[in-house]
Amino acid sequence: MRYTFLPDMLDRAMTEFGSRPAADFLGRKMNFRELGKASITFAASLQQLGIKKGDRVGILLPNCPAYIIGYYAALRIGAVVVNINPLYAEEEIAHQIKDSGLKTLIALNLKTCYGKINTDTLDRVIVVSLAKELPWLKRVLFNLFKRKECAEIKQDKKHFSFCDLQKCEYALEHVQIDPLKDIAVLQYTGGTTGVPKAAALTHANVAINTHQCAEWFTVIKPGEHKMIAVLPFFHVFAMTTVMNFSMLNAVEMVIHPRFVLKNVLKAIHQKKPTILCGVPTMFTAICHAADLQKYNMRSLIACISGGAPLPLEIKKQFETMTGCTLIEGYGLTEASPVCAANPFDGVNKAGSIGLPFPDTEFKVDQPDEKGVGELCIRGPQVMQGYWNKPEETAKVLVDGWLKTGDMGRIDEEGYIYVVDRLKELIISGGYNIYPRHVEEAIYQHASVAECAVIGIEDHYFGQVPKAFVALKPGQTCNSAELLDYLKPKLAKFAMPKEIEFLEALPKTLIGKVDKKKLPR
């Protein structure tokens, strides 16, 4: 049976696998019954606060139990989850809050989260205490040594404690949801242009994509597995393949707030997970760990890489080291996100992103003599459209097909190959960086006349952004000054890793900056 209302997956796990561990956050454990009941209680509290069907609820949290509880609670009452990356700068967060129209935000009490938001634009701020997310001993140590990292929380009627809202005794009121039509998640992306916009994903889009993953990964049996949950839940890749997948299959998540190589290696060695979803930089770091021989990695049986191309050599090294199968998949935010993957129990072709997922079609639009053209996708996981952007939606959803902006080909056996990108998207360590977004931030500097941003190769991240800048006559500025100016405007991963100053940028015949002629 395919569940199309997302909370049904957690409810099924709560009913059939209630006593099974669901979340292990740095030693604090919750089973599926506890997790499910917590989401129901919190959902009732949200209703009492006046949140209704269709209202947007932002989640500004790293991986932790509160994220899971808040996510499913909001969905239960028909609210729309707006995933917000805590690594974003203040202006980027402010844009998402304004663009989505959200008035309720769930945020961590650290300066790195709460300290970035303008609470004046919000009606409600639900504050999660990191210390209370931790097991007892770590909670004590945090309060002793890390209190300086906590933000000063305003004391007014719009601020609420997540912990207090977990104690309410209100009954949850039923809300009628149409999974095929009602939006579950607004997931921000640059799409096929550099303008940040939200892919509107329905309950059915995300739930069906989770089922497609389960149908593909035939080695996974419900109630029998454990997964390292280190990919950030606010990213669409982890939302589906880690969090929702774990709910659907009653998989225990060993949750890490961020990727720290030593901590992940220790967790694999000690807690014996069977599944690891990651980006290529994670698998590269593991393969190149200096003390790798100290850790037993043989518990892993199924690993999935996405977010960026997986180097063939890394795949071979990782599989030799662990004895597991590491497959590469392909997806995009507008498709919830997974559309294709190499099979676990079939042929894995070098350089290929594999075969289409169940009920998913690929086609090559306007192929050249080599069969290469723009890849287009059709399937039940494809978004409803971009939030409040009909013109942008019309550009990418054409006759029921999603235009990916990626150039590719399909071989005679149906395996898909991504050849190049139409868009100038930079994929750095699994994060999408949109050159236009970075350029717009640079252009705000008073000394800048022209700029252009491209992706350059990096042995660890795959790609990193490099900026080329031409200054206005008589103006001066150096790399350090410009980077300091950009800090509040760009996420750390989007900051240019190199800046080169030129007298003028190369142009095409019609006066556009010619990025092909920029020095690499």
Structure description:
This protein has 520 residues and is an alpha/beta fold. The chain has 15 helices and 27 strands. The strands form 5 sheets. A 9-stranded mixed β-sheet has the order 2-1-11-10-12-13-14-15-16, sandwiched between helices. Strands 7-6-5-3-4-8-9-19 form an 8-stranded mixed β-sheet, sandwiched between helices. Strands 17, 18, 20, 21 and 22 form a 5-stranded antiparallel β-sheet that branches. Helix 3 (65-76) links the parallel strand 3 (56-60) and strand 4 (80-83). Helix 1 (7-16) packs across helix 2, helix 8 packs across helix 9 and helix 11 (280-287) crosses helix 12 (312-322). The radius of gyration is 23 Å and the shape is globular.
Strand ordering within the main sheet: 2-1-11-10-12-13-14-15-16
Radius of gyration based on Cα positions = 23 Å
Beta-strand percent range? 25-35%
Number of helical segments with 4 or more residues:
15
Distance separating the two termini: 52 Å
Low-confidence region ranges: none
| Gross morphology | globular
Described by strand count, sense and barrel closure, the largest sheet is: 9 strands, mixed
Oligomer: single chain
In helices, the fraction of residues equals 25-40%
The average pLDDT is 93
Which class of secondary structure composition applies to the elements?
A: alpha/beta
Number of strands: 27
